Amino acid sequence: MVKTVRTEPDGRLITYETWGDPDAHPVFLLHGTPGSRLGPRPRTFDLHKLGIRMIAYDRPGYGGSDRHPHRRVADAADDINTIAQDLDLKKYSVVGRSGGAPHALACAARNLGSYVASAAALVSLAPPDADDGLDWREGMSESNVSTYDLLDAHAPDVTALGSLLARNAETIRRNPALFLASLREEMPSEDRVVVENAGIRRQLLVNYLSAVGDGEQGEGAQEQPPAPTGWVDDLVAFRMHWGFDLKEIDGTVPVMLWHGERDIFAPVSHFRWLAKKIPTAKAVLQPSVAHFAALPALPQVLAWVRDEAA
Question: What SS3 state is found at 6?
Fold first, then answer.
């Protein structure tokens, strides 16, 4: 069921959707970058078997949600709490994958209203101010490095970044398979096996297209396609202070960190740094898998946050 809710006091519209057993434990699934509420998820039948009520929403600037200018990673906790209040939830869990993972950590740290029962961050980046010798870009794919270099070189001006991502978004609107193919060129073999699964591939293509919209501009359209604001704002938020301190994750909310050892989109060094900074977290490092292995791992992670919430 697709629903909308407005935030206070700014009145932004947030679009969200629910699946699974409405009487089961609620879990927010936070999508990657770029992404939308239609990102990869377990089938409704499997959610019922797991005893999960899944909730996903479009982060600001994606899909059906209004943009939130100058948003930080920590702001996701407020938006999720707004949805939880709209659904009259008293306790819920949060699972974030890839670009959604830092936002899941924000929920665990802030734990608004003491409503967050458990959280999991799969294949997460570390914050940009990571110390203790972490080379933030080491082991990262060339496309990610060049994109973050472009962002950092012009910050706070995001015009160049917006132009780059506008071209990527236009490719997705024409044919999302072309965008996935460009990612596939960089993927290690472990990731290619995952995305060749017909079900996962189909969900990824729907996810990317929903993230940037149809982009129909009609006659007299601008030669330069509009920048995909959700995508731009995600990357900016990852490279500025997240708006919370990892020390706030103190064990009162059970947290899992999950990572694939051969990840090139969020290198394993980021996982090791996060695990050191969040010593109360359950740190799960899977050998011989990479970034997209987080998708088939979702049912196990959902079962963990469900059990920890209990």
Answer: strand
